[in-house]
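Checked the freezer inventory, then went back to the computational side. Two predictions to log before the end of the day. The first one is the construct we discussed on Monday; recording sequence and tokens without edits.
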Amino acid sequence: MLAMLAPVPADILASGLEVMNPHGVVAFGTGAPSEEKSGAWSFEFFSKEEFKDGKGPLKVLIYGSATDSKTAHPLYRPGYVTAMAVYERVTPAKAGKHPDDSVRPEYALETDTKWTMFWEVSHLSALPKEKQIALNKLLLPGTGKLKAYAGTPPRGPLLVVVPEIIAKSL
């Protein structure tokens, strides 16, 4: 199963689980204009064939990355995917912000920086500890024998292959 693997700060991810709107959508920012070429990188990544309309659902595996919290955070487990969702679309930013605050995690709105775009998901849910996926169990897409993903925390979204034995349990 092909999936998108993406890091989201654990505090923002937890806040995203609380987003309630009629569409059931949560939006996460990508492509900070302050990072060299990040807007171009984000546009290039989300322009891939796998993200085009009509391609069917694409699972999103979310790595709850570092948090500002000084206490243990249940969505921050180094080396593991701690949440899942379904990719919906990308929305361009307007003046660095999402055009609809109702799809943004409240914590992100409080601490947000400017973004070039937002990737939106539906069906966002935390994975119970026994279903969390070790990053080093994922594979890299390609032809022939698939290579193992190194298991290092991603710095931005990337496409991965979830082995069938793991995909069946999701």
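The second is the one RB wanted added to the comparison set:
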Amino acid sequence: MNESIDSKSEKTRQFYDAAAAIIRDLSFMNYGYAPLATPLGDSAGPERYCLELYAHLLGDAELRGRQVLEISCGRGGGASFAMARYGPRSLVGIDLSERNIDSAARRFAGVNGLSFLVGKSERLPFASSSYDAVINVEASHLYDDPARFFFEVRRVLRSGGVFFYADLFWSTSDPLQLITDAGLSVTSNEDITANVLQSLDLDCARREQLITAAVPEHLQRDYRDWSGIKGHRAYNRFASREWVYRSFRAAIQPR
């Protein structure tokens, strides 16, 4: 890749490549979602709150037989969940981190219709009108050009397609404007900051154990800031509402 070393995307790629080498036993890397009722429960495994975020975002989506793209798929856990629960004909996960993609491809190699490739969100390597649904979870705040990303989502979506989107935002930002400027019409917009904070509270011990066991001591503070450990940077920003977490659904605006 020819990215500048100072670009946000290149720094993100380097960090997630490094994290994949340090903490290997993960399928998800989002902050999670703790529902107020009917949680997936312990049977969903140790990363259940991360999985709950996908379950909340996708909800009652009709994806059976459809072609789905997940942009910034991370290590593939969300894509695998969507494939199993919603039955799309195919699901492609794309991510900037080569190590993330290697991990996802190995872990989910036996899932029919599920594939992974390296690529950048602002320059998607797909033809226009290629997908019936696009998923993006907790990633766009790390992009160099979020506006360009939303235009790319609009470009690859087919008529009638749906964009499932969740991310954190500075409380002073206006994500709705970026989405609508790209030609997408928001049909659902929910503040789920309280659910994310509850997830981080409930999942704190697991996250701390992973860091203590795998991360070199001199990097542990950075990883606690990043991973949402209670009392550290990300958690504190949600608690103060300096950051808010929102989930959206959007569709192509009618002409």
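For RB: The chain has a mean pLDDT of 91. The domain at 8-252 is CATH 3.40.50.150 (Rossmann fold). Let me know if you want it refolded.
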